[in-house]
Amino acid sequence: MGQTISDPNVVARMIGALGIGKRLKVLEIGTGSGYQTAILSHLYRRVYSIERHATLLTDAEARLEVIKCFNVTTQLGDGQKGWPVQSPFDRIIVAASTQNIPDILLGQLAEDGVMVTPVGPEHGVQKVMRIAKNRDGVDAQGLFDVRFLPLIGGMPKTDGITSR
After folding, report:
1. 6 annotated active-site
2. Region for 38 from its dihedrals, namely left if φ exceeds 0, alpha if ψ lies in -120 to 50, beta otherwise
């Protein structure tokens, strides 16, 4: 599907920046292979994960079922829109870069919530940002440099699935 998998060190650093808590509800944008999703499922109460590629999502769901990650709910959808019906989220982690901090996702973040997302140009180096939301606004902190594929809105025209 032309996607990449994040370096395990980057996954660990991004999850660490979220702040771990067994009672927290997390939104993950970009299920991908399910690797990060599986880790999140062991660190948080509930994980909601969105993937725009049906093939990737189906494969990830099968992997998550095999390893018994029963606190994960997945959805085929546009990650730029988040998951409003399940919001607010205590934590949001985005596995794709954005030009700016995504307002739609920020709106789905609970007060005292944290979002971790790569921000920067589509091609080139981005900065992983930790955005903490409180009643007075947001506090954004740049953490480290990365190169992520961009967060793409909408759904793919084709997903490599053949009709049966």
Report:
1. yes
2. alpha
CATH among 3.30.70.3550, 3.30.70.270, 3.40.50.150, 1.10.630.10 for 8-146: 3.40.50.150
Which two tokens mark 47?
């994980």
Starting at the edge strand found earlier in the chain, the sheet holding 21-29 runs: 72-76, 44-51, 21-29, 89-94, 109-119, 126-134, 137-146
Say what the pLDDT of residue 163 is: 34
Q: 7 pLDDT band (50/70/90 cuts)?
A: confident
Query: CA-CA distance, 107 to 127, in Å (whole number)?
Result: 21
When pLDDT is averaged across residues 64-71 and rounded to a whole number, the result is 96
What's the CA gap between 122 and 147, in Å, rounded? 9
Instruction: Report residue 152's pLDDT band, with 50, 70 and 90 as the boundaries.
Output: confident
CA distance 59 to 82: 21
The terminus-to-terminus CA distance of the chain in angstroms comes to 20
- Which candidate in 6, 41, 49, 97 is catalytic? 6
Quick check: 12 pLDDT over 50?
yes
